UniProtKB/TrEMBL annotation:
Residue ranges constituting the PTS EIIA type-2 domain according to the UniProt record: 546-688
Occurrences of domain PRD (ranges): 290-398
Superkingdom of source: Bacteria
Coiled coil: none
Domain PTS EIIB type-2: 406-495
Keywords: Repeat, Sugar transport, Transferase, Transport
Keyword Acetylation listed: no
Name of this protein: PTS sugar transporter subunit IIA
InterPro entries per the UniProt record, alphabetical: BglG_antiterminators (IPR050661), PRD (IPR011608), PRD_sf (IPR036634), PTrfase/Anion_transptr (IPR016152), PTS_EIIA_type-2_dom (IPR002178), PTS_EIIB-like_sf (IPR036095), PTS_EIIB_2 (IPR013011), WH-like_DNA-bd_sf (IPR036388)
Length: 693
């Protein structure tokens, strides 16, 4: 091991760069050293000071690519420090007492646990030597490890040292779950070669079962089986049972033959290895196997449930999605039944970048949960989410809107309502910019943004391959300046339209008229045109037809919290069967998840969800609260709740346009704040063309 640097993680950094013949990316250093980006920069800075003090060239930063150790420095370090001799089998590794350089606490404790499981006993002195730390640190580590171990395991003291004891299958499961991380940590001393005999047996398994393992599965099984076979050379670690259940599967016969080749005959061990192999991912499966025949109908139900909840049309019974997901669920079934927990390194990223898809998947797997009589972990849900997201992107049968060319995408949590208000203003203010939408979050997560230059959203979104700007539903002057700046950065030419859009119409029409006719009185013509465009369309209908007007306009005087206010406001739509009760629940859920994005400003909340969340027919209601309320963690006072039940993305647009016009009318808003009776409120809504008289 290199012992040049006195900076924590400095020697590991140099070793990683020394062992790489080319540039090492920042991401690779983060993953290999288990450090944050900021910590990587810190280590490089201080290692470079040490190199410079020794007259060596510093680590080079190849901008946009990564980091490189100069050839002169590489030669100096390689000549001065010999690379540690590595062993290739687990028995030799655990008997060699390697000495680790300083590891991070979590890395050290993970490796200590591995030693305590894999060796018969290990003393405190041996642990302090192996991990190059004090005895007090080791004692603290052991106390913390004891708390985090599975319930079936505990640390026991023997005369010769300490060991982790307890349920043998649980110990093996712990090693199997953490093996990939452990192999990285012990790599300076241990490089497992691919055991040719185990590799041959894995090939025989594939031929016998017709199930083809992925490359990653093949690799991890090869390493794990090496560890396991080394362990069960000691019969005290063998699994035992009064009577093993009969097993006539191909994989059981294969495992029995594998063990015979190593001089072991134990039905329970054969059963164990058979199950372990089937917990891994397959790139191809034998559709005629008994397990697959049981799981395939469950897969169909899962896809159908996803389609129902997401409003898409992925092929449920035939095609690559069903086959691939069935193969995955077969492995998942074995992991659940054999209590093998999968640690998904991408879990948090999936929950952040595919939040809606993740939640829909969690609902969709209910038939599989019932089949295995267990609830899948979030790590497993994240894996299945990836299947659905991939299918959404590749399937031509999805209902996602087509991706336009060089456009700006507008997103709202539900894909309607608040974003529609924003869209109206954007299209008026920037007539030369193409705006597409509204998309909901699920559509945003699963669509390609290849031709999208900017995303504007009424709620916070995960960053994807283009800039995302969160904006209010009714932007103020500062917001418009920010939007204008972002549009210009995205390559759009914008007009600074502080006045009404009708000015552009008037000027354009005046120019066209002048090309074909002589204008005698241009000022009067311009004024007449402006007056014309300001008039409401003769074809426009005022608001939504509402036969139950008295039930849908309410004035409430008693104070309420935001959730109660929303439920009270929306209840009339449930009472007359316009919406189902779950529609209100969805509005509350969206508000808890995304905050006050439905608050469109001026004290108004546009309460709405997607039309497939329980809407039976088009409807709207209006509730004014004399005592304002606030949504959690929001500073916006709300008095007026407009409850919208849309049936598609178009039928309610006229109402939204009239609402936007009223919100921008200070006189109308002033009257709203001073209403004293429901009759006054109704008259004001008629005046704003939000309801019919």
């Amino acid at each position: 091991m290199i012992e040049f640097s006195h900076v924590r993680h400095g020697n590991e950094m140099l070793l990683e760069l020394l062992n790489s013949p080319s540039v090492v990316s920042l991401k690779t250093l983060e993953n290999k050293l288990h450090l944050s980006r900021r910590s990587i920069f810190y280590v490089i800075k201080h290692v470079n000071k040490e190199l410079d003090a020794e007259g060596l060239y510093e680590i080079e930063n190849i901008r946009g690519i990564g980091y490189l150790l100069p050839d002169e420095t590489r030669q100096q370090l390689a000549g001065k420090y010999k690379k540690d001799e590595t062993v290739t089998d687990f028995a030799s590794f655990f008997n060699s007492f390697p000495q680790f350089s300083k590891l991070a606490k979590n890395q050290r404790q993970l490796t200590e646990t591995f030693f305590l499981i894999s060796r018969d006993t290990t003393s405190l002195n041996q642990l302090t030597h192996i991990f190059n730390t004090s005895k007090n640190t080791i004692i603290k580590d052991l106390n913390e490890i004891a708390v985090t171990l599975p319930n079936e395991l505990f640390i026991k003291n023997f005369k010769s040292g300490k060991s982790i004891v307890g349920d043998e299958t649980v110990q093996r499961s712990w090693v199997f779950e953490h093996l990939q991380s452990l192999l990285k940590l012990i790599s300076p001393f241990f490089q497992p070669s691919s055991d040719s005999h185990i590799s041959e047996h894995l090939q025989l398994f594939e031929k016998a079962t017709g199930n083809i393992l992925t490359d990653d599965s093949n690799s991890i099984l090869n390493s794990y089986l090496q560890w396991l076979l080394s362990r069960i050379e000691n019969q005290s670690y063998h699994l035992t049972a009064d009577k093993a259940e009969a097993d006539q599967s191909f994989s059981y016969d294969w495992a029995t033959q594998l063990l015979k080749d190593y001089g072991i005959e134990n039905q329970m061990e054969s059963r164990y290895i058979s199950k372990i192999v089937n917990t891994q991912a397959f790139q191809h499966i034998n559709l005629n196997s008994p397990l697959i025949k049981k799981i395939q109908p469950i897969t169909t139900k899962v896809i159908q449930r996803f389609n129902q909840k997401a409003g898409v049309k992925l092929p449920a019974e035939v095609g690559s999605l069903n086959e691939n997901l069935t193969a995955h669920l077969a492995s998942t079934y074995c992991r659940v039944k054999f209590n093998i927990r999968y640690h998904n390194p991408l879990l948090e990223r999936m929950k952040t970048n595919y939040r809606e898809t993740f939640e829909l998947t969690k609902i969709a797997v209910a038939p599989f949960n019932k089949f295995v009589n267990s609830t899948l972990s979030e790590d497993e849900i994240a894996l299945i989410t990836a299947y659905f997201s991939g299918a959404m992107r590749s399937s031509s049968q999805t209902v996602l809107p087509p991706t336009p060319i060089s456009e700006v995408l507008v997103v709202c949590s539900s894909g309607i309502g608040t974003s529609q208000l924003l869209l109206t203003q954007l299209r008026q203010r920037y007539p030369n910019v193409g705006f597409v939408g509204p998309y909901n979050i699920f559509q945003y997560e699963n669509c390609s943004l290849k031709n999208i230059k900017l995303v504007l959203s009424t709620t916070s979104l995960p960053q994807k391959e283009c800039p995302v700007l969160t904006v209010p539903v009714i932007p103020n002057n500062s917001d418009w300046e920010h939007i204008d700046y972002q549009l210009q950065n995205a390559g759009f030419t914008t007009f600074n339209l502080s006045s009404n859009f009708s000015q552009i119409k008037v000027s354009s029409i005046m120019d066209i008229i002048a090309n074909y006719a002589r204008i005698v009185d241009p000022q009067s013509l311009e004024q007449a045109l402006r007056s014309y465009f300001k008039k409401p369309s003769a074809e426009s209908k005022a608001g939504l037809q509402d036969p139950l007007l008295e039930k849908h306009v309410k004035l409430i005087r008693e104070p309420m919290d935001w959730e109660s206010a929303v439920r009270v406001s929306m209840q009339p739509l449930v009472d007359d069967s316009t919406v189902q009760p779950r529609y209100i629940d969805q509005i509350v859920k969206l508000t808890k998840e995304h905050g006050d994005y439905m608050a469109i400003g001026k004290g108004i909340l546009l309460a709405h969800a997607s039309y497939n969340a329980g809407v039976n027919r088009l409807g709207v209601n209006f509730t004014y609260f004399k005592t304002p309320f606030r949504i959690d963690n929001s500073k916006k006072d709300i008095n007026f709740v407009v409850g919208l039940a849309p049936i598609d993305q178009d039928k309610h647009l006229e109402l939204l346009a009239n609402l936007l016009r009223s919100v921008q009318d200070d006189s109308w808003l002033s009257k709203l704040r001073h209403v004293q009776t429901e009759r006054e409120l109704q008259n004001l809504l008629v005046q704003g063309r939000l309801i019919t008289p």
